[in-house]
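Sanity check. The docking grid for zinc ion depends on where the pocket ends up, so I'm generating a full predicted complex first rather than guessing from homology. Inputs follow.
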Amino acid sequence: MFIRLLVIAGMLISQATFSQEKDLNLPDLGDRVSGVISLEQEKLLGQSFIEQVYAQAPLINDPIIQEYTELLIYRLSESSQVEDRDFTIILIDEKSLNAFAAPGGVIGVNGGLFLNADNEAQLSSVLSHELAHLSQRHFARRVLRGRDTNLASSLVMVSAIALALVSNNPTAFMTGPAALAQQQLRYSRIFEREADRYGFNNLITAGYDPHAMGQMFENMAKIGKLAGDNPPEFLLTHPVSSSRVSDALNAAGQIEFSGGKKNTINFEFIKGRLQARYVSLPPQSAVRYFEKLTQDNPTNENQYAYIEALKSNGSFAQALLRLEELLTKYPKNLILNMAKSEIYLADQKFDKANQQIDKVLNISPGNYPASIIKSNVLSAQQKTIQAEEILRELLISKNNDPHLWMLLSEIQRAGKNIVGYHLSQGEYYLLLGDLENALNQFQLALGLSANSFQTSELIMTKIKFAQDRLGQKRGL
Ligand SMILES: [Zn+2]
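Predicted complex below; grid placement will be based on this.
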């Protein structure tokens, strides 16, 4: 949706539909763009954007879904033109269809995007479109052509975008430069077309079915019709015209190779997991709903959604029975093997949960979702020190993940490590850009660690960091 605010004029306008454009040698803008807004500045803007989304948007705190999405985006990016692959992938807990890209390598995806894609290829068509917004530096190019070329006003704009996003209210930013809105929307179509072209090529080079993009557009058009006057955000910023659909389908028709990857088992399980998450029924009715669905159409997705519904309903024995059936078909699948440990954990069979998750960690050492499950199991067994150790290990490579800091703080509180608890809470608030609360937590930690010189030293560094950032923010 962020692209809605982009303003660009006159440059790079290629009216050719992408079916005609086999050769994508658009002029290289790199240096000209970087002179106006550097990659470092984009990172800073992205950081500000991320903080606001973390602070205000409902997030899907599900490490299994997070891991799947991150791996998919990284894999797609390998055949994209994105140079900086230091992404921040944010999963928004909304069942409406939306995805967005923001400067500094931010890609956001609503849970609803998965629900509205029939397969991994269709999901990838939207993700590669978002990757193209990043690789083509649409944000910087908007600044280049706009009047507000300074960082401070860009920050204000990024805030407005974040607000519109998290309030799920596309008109929220209108309180700003409302007069420009329509013009911006029109200009943005140029970028959208460019993102379609680059995204389409990315999709094919990543080995996916070329028809997937056109099919995803058709799905979106259907959703738009059903929604009437109240279409989801993504359709407002990405209107699906009949020419957009036919361009994509024609482009696919002209691709010489047929076939291409359509789906993966993991996509089916992830979609099933989200189906169970978003079913708006009480647990018992949800069980009946998915039971019927599975009888009528026993796909992997429906079977797995049924298992998750059984778990949420406390029907653990039945959930396990069903899961074993799927596991005989896919014995090595990590998602299923992790789900088994989760069921044991929910059923408070901690030893079994532990054994099961160790099996996964033996096959995939350091695996992110499996490590979190392991830490949850240990924490439930009151083995807080070991649980803490596992999270610290994860934080070495993922110290920008607020959810991990929150988990760590909860475990520390349970283990009566109150200094650690305040420190982790402080880190959590830092990531949300809530510097006052971060400072407050660090000061509480300092007050409790008076007799440990080393700890005080560390905390003083944190306090200094938070104070400096607060100063910078007020200075802007
Ligand atoms: Zn777009």
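Relevant for the grid: Residues 2-253 form one domain.
Also worth noting: Confidence is low (pLDDT under 50) at residues 1-34, 169-187.
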